[in-house]
Fold each of these.
Amino acid sequence: EIVMTQSPATLSVSPGERATLSCRASQSVGTNLAWYQHKPGQAPRLIIYGASTRATGIPARFSGSGSGTEFTLTISSLQSEDFVVYFCQQYDNWPPWTFGQGTKVEIK
Amino acid sequence: QMQLQESGPGLVKPSQTLSLTCTVSGGSINRGGYYWSWIRQHPGRGLEWLGYIYYSGSTYYNPSLKSRLTMSLDPSKNQFSLNLTSVTAADTAVYFCVRDRFGDGIDYWGPGTLVSVSS
């Protein structure tokens, strides 16, 4: 099974600044990668699929890039509601789909 | 807007069966193109994909749980369910039901339900 590794585990950023989150796959997943936003106690929300395509209703400040084994989620200007957990998922090699451990974005 | 909601006991005794139901609103589970799946998150750990059931009734389970896991669906109630037998403390987790597009990510999630396994 493919192992997904996210870094850092916690990212401290000031509101209005840029956040860059990384996700690495143990083997190539092409562009079959998704990013999710998860607020505690709520349903996770799909924000990026296909490594770089924003899901419906996702603001333009969210962008995804990468292919193969290295992926990045960038939030260009952090808003207060963005300080939550983000995790990545590969859907190239199945079964099973696998997920990263998550990155918590906290207010600096 | 589609919504998914998990329901079931929050506490299960070791060796018993964990049973959860997901109620879907805002859309029918009885259509192709989507895979109705379960995912869990152990406390302080990452997510684990458990398996899916398709509207036709076909299923696929994570090989690590295959011998203990059964999924079913009830189109008349727009629900799908999970049964996990012979549970241990290692099955304590938040369980999510989701709609998987199986190729473009998971577009709808329930909020999750915590199930603890303890005597």
Note: Chain B is about 0% helix and 50% strand.
Amino acid sequence: NAGVTQTPKFRVLKTGQSMTLLCAQDMNHEYMYWYRQDPGMGLRLIHYSVGEGTTAKGEVPDGYNVSRLKKQNFLLGLESAAPSQTSVYFCASSYLYTQYFGPGTRLTVL
Amino acid sequence: AQTVTQSQPEMSVQEAETVTLSCTYDTSENNYYLFWYKQPPSRQMILVIRQEAYKQQNATENRFSVNFQKAAKSFSLKISDSQLGDTAMYFCAFMAPNNAGNMLTFGGGTRLMVKP
């Protein structure tokens, strides 16, 4: 099993550009999450999904959208990137209250 | 809302010695879970240990153990026989079932350096 994978690993955007981060899990988990980690801080929840076709807002959802069209995939979109969205983004899936994380995507917005 | 506080931004320990990382939390929930995650320079978030609040027995995983004090809302991590590979950021996290999709609330982290 690959576990939780994220694509891409690194990305540089210009202000105003858009992009989509892809998260995939092969563990058949119902719950999936997107977090961001800013320098020197813990992770904060952006959006989450409790099953295929469902999404909900987390602590810091502004400027992001998500979709869960397939159970194994959870997409995070930035429609118009801003420098404040420079961060490391982590995807996770969970089973029996334990979350398993992907390797992260480092995003820089210039 | 839950909060998690890690009061030690940085710590260091000599190889083979024991170190304890502190974590306190605030919640009105009675049923919850607590976790320690390790984040090495590779950036990967690795689950170290998990504690269910309804269990009085402290969780252990090989060289890692916790001291869970529910009344004091304290959840410290003890690393015995420290190894160079333990060098990492350590995050304490809280989760209350059925709260926002079982989201994790993280502390600010403790950077641990294991010295040879």
Note: The radius of gyration of chain A is 13 Å.
